Structures are given as C-alpha cells and as structure tokens.
Amino acid sequence: MPVLRPAPAYARIKDYVRRQIESGAWPAGSVIPSEHDLVKQFGVSRMTVHRALRELTADQLLHRVQGAGTFVNARKYQSTLIEIRSIAHEIESRGHVHTSQVLVLERTTDAAALATLGLKATDYAYHSCIVHAENGEPIQVEDRYVNPHLYPRYLEQDFERLTPSDYMTQEAPLQRAEYVITARLPEADIRQHLRMSPGDPCLVLQRRTWAHEQVATEVTLWHPGVRFQFSGAF
Asked: Where would one find coiled-coil regions in this protein (predicted)?
C-alpha cells in the first residue's frame, strides 16, 4: 500500500489562502496577512510563504502593492464574449459618467424567480430593476432577482450610488456563471426606459451566477441594439 505523504508546506499555505477567499472571509479588495504573519502562523520559512503567494499572484487571485501589502483580486468570469464587471466601472474606464435610476427594489414571492434561484415555494427573493446611463444616455435596463440568504442586506443598499455587482462582490464572491445572449424586441416599458424607436431590437443577456454552491442571482440585461455591442477576446 503506497505511503501518503503530506502536501508541501507552500501548497498547504496556497490551499489555506484559496479557502479564505472562496469562503468570503477575505473579500475582494481586502489585504491578506503579511508574509511575516503567515511565517509565524504556519511555522515555515519566509521563502516558503513567498513561493505560495507568488504562485497565487500568478494565478491572478492576489496582487501586490509595493509598501502596502498583498490584496485579494476581484474575481473575473470570462467567456468568449464577456466577463462579469460592474457597468459603472466599464463606463468609467472609458472616461465617461455613469448614473442610474432605481425603478424597483422589493421583496417578492414570484414563483418563477424562486424556482430559478433554487428556493422553496414558501420562501421569498429580492427583486430590483435599474436603468443605467452613460453620459446621460440609457444603455442598460437591469432586471435582477437575488437570493436573500446570500445577500441579506440587498434592500438596504443605495443602488444609485453603488451597483448591485459591486455590493454582491463584497458580500459573497461569485464562483461561476452561465449566460445566453439573444436579440429581442423589447416591450413598451423597456423601450421607453432605453429611449428606443419602435421596431428597434435589444441585445439581451440573461445570466445566472453561483456563490457558496448556491444560485446567487438571476439577471436579465436589456441593451439598445443600435447603441450597444458585446466585445471580448480569447
């Protein structure tokens, strides 16, 4: 029978850091313990800790800031077309101004929403509908259902100052996502919110995400096809 050898010390440190990040104990943007603290905690050499953090940095879980420490990266979820990002950050990265208008922010017992989120029929979900604009021109209607067990303070947020994506990244980091993109004619209320002409199509992204092995959120994002495109590289 083969003898099982313990994992190398640097691998145990890597596993510990990953578990802290994935559990949400160390959220995106937080500074992790220093190399000195990890040396004391694990009783290993500075070189061993340095190797573990260097490899986690190469894996893009961490990033180092000279003189400030080592920080947890925001998790990115990429496909051949998109990654999950805050629309406010996308707009600001273009040097433009993001604004938003909250249309709906409520608790709901909608049966379809509960089923999509994997919740019991006797449970409830949170629902928001927000219009996002770039330099004053609306480019997205975000219709979102949220698992209240993962994001219990969702209804308390000011989503005209903070996007739902920003809040959820802080509260419970996402693990994975699935999505589909279609071209659809919007209903009258969506068309009006996006200031579209009758007959113009929308690009519609429907996405579900998971955190802590539960469905976290289901969102439908409506974009005016004449003023919006998805882009990416792979």
From this structure: none
